[in-house]
């Protein structure tokens, strides 16, 4: 997926959210068209989309050209983590949770599914924004290396043996690892669930 395509999907997600329209429903309806390309909104990590456009924009500015559309796309995509965190905060408040001191579980920290690569993962933006609000954050990712995550992002991964979803006020499914697709979060009492990757059958919020 290109920067432009991800940017368009993220813009649509923000608009749909304001209109109280489920983005996934729109994508499923559009998918009935034979030539529809199923691009989805989400966090933009990695190197190809997350970093490389800045090389081009830097060179363009050096020669006196302002690549405003590319830079606008970058700004939108770079701020999606903050947008997600704010949606989670709103949901916590709606369910009667005190935001400061609430316990939130982040599922996944790699930049894409079924991959151990944590470089340029934008999940960290969600984590840090929630921490700014005073949330207590636990991160679980069966693919990521604990030492690398600690070194790169100063976050401690919890192990599978410590995973007790029932004790959290909020759960954010950030990466679509296969291990997470079988999780049933629908019966958790008063816990906010936010599905960034839209892989859960039911959640309080999703992109």
Overall 3D geometry?
globular
Q: What is the CA-atom radius of gyration, in angstroms?
A: 17 Å
Strand pairing plus helix content: what structural class? alpha/beta
Q: Strand tally, please?
A: 5
Q: How is the largest sheet built, in terms of strand order?
A: 2-1-3-4-5
Mean pLDDT: 84
Order of helices and strands: HHHHHEHEHEHEE
Main pleated-sheet profile: 5 strands, parallel
How large is the count of helical segments?
8
Which range best describes the helical content: under 10%, 10-25%, 25-40%, 40-55%, 55-70% or over 70%?
Answer: 40-55%
Low-confidence stretches: none
User: In percent terms, what proportion of residues is strand?
Assistant: 5-15%
What is the terminal-to-terminal distance? 16 Å
Question: What does it look like?
Answer:
The chain is 40% helix and 10% strand. The protein is α/β, with parallel strands linked by helices. Helix 8 (178-181) links the parallel strand 3 and strand 4 (192-195).
């Amino acid at each position: 997926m290109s920067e432009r395509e991800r940017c368009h999907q993220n813009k649509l997600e923000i608009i749909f959210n304001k209109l109280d329209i489920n983005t996934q429903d729109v994508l499923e309806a559009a998918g009935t068209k034979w030539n529809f390309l199923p691009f989805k909104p989400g966090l933009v990590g990695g190197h190809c989309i997350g970093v490389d456009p800045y090389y081009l924009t830097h060179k363009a500015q050096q020669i006196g050209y302002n690549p405003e559309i590319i830079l606008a796309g970058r700004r939108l995509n770079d701020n999606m983590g903050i947008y997600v965190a704010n949606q989670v905060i709103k949901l916590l408040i709606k369910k009667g949770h005190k935001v400061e001191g609430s316990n939130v579980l982040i599922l996944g920290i790699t930049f894409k599914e079924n991959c151990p690569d944590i470089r340029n993962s934008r999940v960290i933006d969600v984590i840090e924004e929630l921490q700014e609000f005073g949330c207590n954050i636990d991160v679980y990712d069966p693919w990521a290396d604990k030492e690398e995550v600690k070194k790169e992002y100063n976050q401690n991964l919890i192990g599978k043996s410590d995973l007790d979803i029932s004790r959290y006020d909020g759960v954010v499914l950030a990466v679509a690892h296969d291990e997470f697709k079988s999780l049933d979060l629908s019966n958790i009492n008063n816990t906010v669930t936010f599905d960034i990757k839209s892989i859960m059958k039911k959640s309080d919020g999703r992109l």
